[in-house]
Amino acid sequence: MAEAGLELAHRMETDYLKRCFGNCLAQALAEVAKVRPSDPIEYLAHWLHHYGKITKAQEEGRQEKIQLKEEYDNSLKETQMTEMLKQEECQIQQEHEKCHQPLVSAAISTKETIFMQENTKSLENEAWKQECLPGTASKIPEMPQQIPSSDSPGQTDGSVKTPPEINY
């Protein structure tokens, strides 16, 4: 029974050493045996300390690579999202322009029509005024002209003379 307890303790110590030192202790002891320093304990201590520094630096480098890759992936996703948003904004702007283009054309067309109507009205009013004055109807093409009678200077006899045809 004592042997079983000793074997169990030995196995637990071995498991502990494997878990904590892994391959490191075996490599260190092999290095000590190979070099055969005058103070093997001090050599072993320095070797293990140096191994710890190297292992720590490698782990930090590995973690840094992982972090850089994550940052790169996030940056790439952000760039893609920005590009998608730009394309979406461009599409929305194009749709907006398409929707409002007829309204703008209609507004311009309406303004032109109103402007033309206003100009026509002023011309019509001017023509009407001139038509009402005796002897001015000849200024407007193809308008019947009233000829004043010789009886009274301001009155007309109702006879209408049509001017000759004008070819433009």
Task: Describe this entry's structure for a reader.
Strand 1 (145-148) and strand 2 form a beta hairpin. The chain is rod-shaped. It has a two-stranded antiparallel sheet. The protein is built from three helices and two strands. The chain has helices at 2-21, 24-35, 40-132, and strands at 145-148, 156-161. It is mainly α and 168 residues long. 74% of the residues lie in helices and 6% in strands. Helix 2 crosses helix 3 (40-132). The mean pLDDT is 76.
| Series of secondary-structure elements, N-terminal to C-terminal | HHHEE
Over the alpha carbons, how many angstroms does the gyration radius reach?
54 Å
Structural class: mainly alpha
Indicate the percent of residues in helices: over 70%
Mean pLDDT comes to 76
Unreliable stretches: none
Please state how the strands of the largest beta sheet are arranged side by side.
1-2
The coarse silhouette is rod-shaped
Strand runs, count: 2
Largest pleated sheet: 2 strands, antiparallel
What is the terminal-to-terminal distance? 136 Å
What's the total helix number? 3
Q: Which percent band covers the strand fraction?
A: 5-15%
